Amino acid sequence: MTDKAAFALGWEEWASLPDLGLPALKVKVDTGARTSALHAFDIEPFGHASAPKVRFNVHPVPGREDITISCSADVVDRREVTSSNGETELRYVIAADIQMGGTIWPIEVTLTNRINMAYRMLLGRQAITEQMVVTPSESFCQPQLDNSVYFSSAIRDTGTARALRIAVLSREPDSYSTRRLVEEGETRGHVVEVIDTTRCYMAINAMAPEIYYDGARLPRYDAVIPRIGASVTSYGTAVIRQFETIGTFCVNGSSGITQSRDKLQAHQVLARYRIGMPTTAFAASPKDTDNLIALAGQAPLIVKLLESTQGRGVVLAETKKAAQSVISAFRGLKANFLVQHFVKEASGEDIRCVVVDGKVVAAIKRTSSGGDFRSNLHLGGTATVAKISKAEREAAVRSAKAFGLRLAGVDLLRADDGPKVLEVNSSPGLEGAEKTTGKNIAGLLYDTIEKRVRPVPARKARKTQ
After folding, report:
1. pLDDT confidence of residue 47
2. Where do the ATP-grasp domain residues begin and end (predicted)?
């Protein structure tokens, strides 16, 4: 307790549970009950067995089931509790601080549905300390609070930390980016699970769309962080659409991932938003090769597969004849590609801007190795911290916004007439940017998730006939 002086309690008092984001509860003080109890429903355990957590919803105002507060807490025990009517129930037990007036002290409280009770919380004798004097004939010896706090939007901005259940969709659990996302989330007290996208399967119907994984229905996640590889774009975005259908917050949506992954569609989106990019041309007919080259400008030119990643499938044609040969070869493979003006003044360098929730949080300059025109770090390029201009920052932010991406890696070139966006990556690697700049990009992403997400209720079990 913060105050060692004795203070009085009546048989009913007002209290707050700040750890749970409950600023006002009318409490019944009952010395006849051993354990304390808090009204809770949609109770769902989650997390590792070594550090179990529970999340639940509370209707804090009697008679107002439209007002719901979502809470989460560490589980300290499971205990059989016998109520005053003789019924025994196995309950989760959590630890929380309780506050009355200027006094705060820790208690243990069990979770049970008290929807039909006049008081949303019962304070048992285990929670009553030696400094307290209970006067059964008195009420509200401590300052009274007001339920009206729940009727304003301010309750959503209390800043109360809540453990979230988060899925990282990734086929590479040991990659730097996936490991960082797991480590950072767990450091913040969240439960982060890595889900192999290709092992998900879906039940698609109007009433109860579901996602299954290794034979079991996936639980409700508070948020999903997609790390969708190019080889599984189509199936991966279908899985994300299913998460969107059931109402899960997805850091990047299926539409933005699909548009950004297809190079042709991505450039059309950039053009629609009038974002600077190298002149680009595309054609399906082999008869249009020379016209295609002319539209993109004079050699040297870049010939790029529509679904190239990490610099693979990107060829520099230094002469018109070389461009014709490369185009002919790609068409012989029945590959979809585009032709792009080569920004010579970039001199084998590009800028990777990492955008999180509409802000550039890191920028690095990538320089190609040897005589390679490609600056990708996967191909041996080197990275240094970049100081970007206002125009470059605006181009990166507008590009991420054009695709609706809350996390994006925007690659741009420094041309004589301003920044030119090369690519918008919906699953940017974190290693190069974090190690080069020393910034905690994974942490900034979790800041966004925590700001935008409220823990979702557990699903109620379906009734069997």
Report:
1. 83
2. 267-450
